[in-house]
Design a protein that fits this description.
This protein is an alpha/beta fold. It folds into two domains: 20-184, 3-Layer(aba) Sandwich (Rossmann fold); 244-288. 50% of the residues lie in helices and 11% in strands. The protein has eleven helices and nine strands. The strands form two sheets. The protein has a six-stranded parallel beta sheet, sandwiched between helices. Strands 7-8-9 form a three-stranded mixed beta sheet, with helices on one face. Helix 4 (86-96) runs parallel beside helix 5 and helix 7 (185-210) packs across helix 10 (242-262).
Amino acid sequence: MNPVPVEVKRNISFAVEDRIGIIGIGLIGASLGLSLKKRNLCGKITGFGRNKETLQKAKEIGAVDQTTDSLEEIANNDIIFLAVPVLSIVEVGKNLARYVENAIVADVGSTKKIIVDELSLAIPKFIGCHPMAGSHKKGPEFAKDGLFKDAVVVITPIEKTDIPSKNTIKNLWEKLDAKIIEISPDEHDRLVSLSSHIPHIVSNILVELVGKNCLISSGFHSMARLALSDPLLWRDIFITNRENIIIGLEKMEKNIVKWKDIMNDEKALMNHLDEINRLAKEVFYGED
C-alpha cells in the first residue's frame, strides 16, 4: 500500500477559542504549543507535567499559557495531545479517560497499533497521530516554531474512529503546514519500522562498531547522530513495534550477506552500486 497525502475538508475545523491541553512538554509537545500560539490558532494552552523546571521553561518560551500536574484539570480542555513516550501514552491516556467527557484526545507517538487499540476503547474521541518531525535533542528548550511545516503527519483511523473529531485534528495539523497521510495503524507501524526504527538501530550499530576511533568522517556523524536520541523514548518504540522491526532486520541480514558476496566481484559490485544509486535518486528526487 502506497500512502498518499489526504486533502483536508476545509469546512471542518477547530475554533480559535478552543482550549488545548498538552500532556508532556518535551521537544514535540512544546513545539506544538509554540507553533499553535505563534499562529493564534487556539485559546489558552495548558501544559501538563511533573517536572516543575520543564513546565516553567515551556511557559518562558511561550509554548504554554499555564501549567498543571492534575489530569482532572487538563481534561477540561477541548483538545488534548498526549506527547509522552509511547508506553506512557497508553498509561496516561487510560488515567485521563476517567476525567474526559467531550474532549478530543490525540497522541503524537511513533508507533500506533498498540496505542490506537488501547485508547480507542477508553476514549470515545481518540485520534491516533504521528508527526514525523523532531530531533535527537529533547526538552522544551529545543522547541521550534514551524517544526511541523512540510512534515508528514500520519493519522491512523480505525472503524470506530469519530470522523468529525478526526477531521478537526486533521485540520489543525494542516494549519501548521503539515502534509497529512491517512493509513491504518498496522500499515503505519510496518512502514515506519523500515524508514525510521531500523535506521535508528543501524545508527546504534555504527557507534558500537566505530567506538572512539579518531578518524571520524562527516558521513559517520550524519548517520550516527540518531544514537544520541533519548534511550527511554526509543526503548518504548522498539518494544511496541517489535514484530515489524524483527522482520525488517531479517531482511537486512539477507542484504548484508548479498553485499558480502559481491565484494570480490567488481562487475557485480558496480552494477549493484549503480542500481542502488538510481533507486536513491528516485527516492530523494523523484527521478526515474
